[in-house]
Amino acid sequence: xxxxxxxxxxxxxxxxxxxEKGYSEPDQQYSPSARTTVGAPLGGLKKLFDxxxxxxxxxxxxINLRRLFVLLLILIGMITLWxxxxxxxxxxxxxxxxxxxxxxITNQDRLNNNEDHVSxxxxxxxxxxxxxxxxxxxxxxxxxxxxxxxxxxxxDQDRLQRESRLQAVRDGFEHAWTGYKDHAWGHDEVSPVSGxxxxxxxxxGATMIDSLDTLVIMGFNKEFDEALEWVKTKFTMxxxxxxxxxxxxxxxxxxxxxxxAYDLTGEKVLLDKAxxxxxxxxxxxQGSDFPNSHFTIDPSFSGRxxxxxxxxxxxxxxxxxRLSKLTGNPIYDQKARKIFDILGTAMPEIPGFLPPNVQDxxxxxYSNFQASVGGMVDSYYEYLLKEWIxxxxxxxxxxxxxEEAVSSIKKxxxxxxxxxxxxxxxxxxxxxxxxxxxxDMGHLxxxxxxxxxxxxxxxxxxxDLLLARxxxxxxxxxxxxxxxxxxxxxxxxxxxxxxxxxxxDPQHFFSQYRSRMEYILRPExxxxxxxxxxxxxxxxxxxxxxxxxxxxxxxxxxxxxxxGLTNVNNVHSKDNKMESFFLAETLKYLYLIFSTPDVISLxxxxxxxxxxxxLRT
Length: 617
Ligand code: DMJ
Fold this sequence. Notes:
Elements: E1 5-7, E2 12-14, E3 17-18, E4 23-24, H1 32-48, E5 56-58, E6 61-63, H2 65-96, H3 107-117, H4 124-135, H5 156-184, E7 189-190, E8 197-198, H6 206-217, H7 221-233, E9 245-246, H8 247-265, H9 268-281, E10 294-295, E11 308-309, H10 310-313, H11 317-327, H12 331-343, E12 347-348, E13 357-358, E14 365-366, E15 370-371, H13 378-390, H14 396-413, E16 414-417, E17 426-427, E18 429-431, E19 437-438, E20 440-442, H15 448-459, H16 462-480, E21 490-492, E22 494-495, E23 501-503, H17 524-536, H18 539-555, H19 581-593, E24 605-607, E25 613-615
Parallel strand pairs: 12-14, 16-23
Antiparallel strand pairs: 1-2, 3-4, 5-6, 7-8, 9-10, 11-13, 15-18, 16-17, 18-19, 20-21, 22-23, 24-25
The chain binds 1-deoxymannojirimycin (DMJ).
1-deoxymannojirimycin binds at residues 252, 379, 444, 522-523, 581, 585, 609-610.
């Protein structure tokens, strides 16, 4: 295996694929400091025992007294280091590593956490190396089987094409980041057409925090350090302690952003911020096991919701469980699991499907609702599977809940085109009582292809992989057939007289009169293409992603950054908005689909719904 070399153009290390393992890793020869530190002390010791002119006899060798003194000092130093730094950790491990608290967090976990807290680096080069290794999963531990495709060695031609696409995506991110930096630094969003900014997500710098781990993954180390400095010196959550903050967005963008960036860099301030935020988010739990949709920093201003949006209460589990693992404070993990445990007792009309609005309580019945995997419910289904993965397969109940939902998706939600094509399907909206399904699929629902694909690998459900491919193809066609090359917010089709089938528009694929025509730079289709590529190794998914990237360049790029469109069939309909998830997710998934597969491997990380990678430990 060749040692990795730093590629300045891509801002990252190039590695060579290790055929046996199926992924790339840096060669030890890379580290010059490792080599010198191994060689130098031995050489120094040898010199101490060289013949001298001022001998004290010691067998065959003569020893210089001054050198002997130096040797003794080194030995004393090493013994002190042993007692101060290494021994305490090991003795703690020996005495109570098996003690487990009520929530399954062992003291061994805490020790592992402490490893994470150790300052990872001492200088610029060290931090770059640390981040490089971390992005490639150093420190990940799991007992679940590996699901990524074992990629064979790449041809030169494929590599050149992939790297030029990777570079183009990286340039795109740099363009968006520069626009944010120049026009909106420290604010939530840049306005990509007019310039200026918006503060619509707490005013805490949403784009900054949401982008931290993307900066690390793409090797923008200097830019990351600038953003980190801003977090250290300027970021605050307490400016307005009575303002109502959206729980869901705060968790997925801010807490997820801090945790993802912490897991890739070990920068303790990021964990401190996540923990401080965690403390405030507990204010959302006001006499209920479910969190309110809004919370305040000052708890005396928090109200009490009567009903709860499923996606809002079912999309904190990854963040809260990881926060507990990293801090050793079990409260977050307990809150997260309690919600899923309650939802697991629900008795809906269709097994596995829950309505967009739910109540707090065990064994509740739900009927006559519109079931989908799109807006208001989407990431609840995503987190059932991902929480099971993050908890290393131990929460069997969540796997069962996920599988039950997948079985109902297959039975009630899948709609096929009337023309008989087997290449693609859509996931419609089901009435839970009549069981009728309508050909209406939101862009958000396109994430489901990726979850189906991962579930199929973990649970050996090979037919689910076929469905995942068909769903992704349906989502991709929504892009392929529009004038801008981008898919609408909700693609609606004409109903067929045959149940479970739909009719496509001959010109536009979806019906442009019935659909919600805006595209707000959403990532879900790219997310699924990335997962499918990593699980199957099929280049087709890279090519589709590349087509979408080119559409973004053509239809959404402005002189400042990238903008959404109010109508995907009109490239001039710029909405002057760049959501932070464009940098956190859309460009990240694009970058990852053209990276080597060891970068944020699905076998090392679980990504939260905002694409923040959480290390599996
Ligand atoms: C993101 O904030 C998250 O992916 C969320 O789960 C859904 N909406 C946006 C992206 O579309």
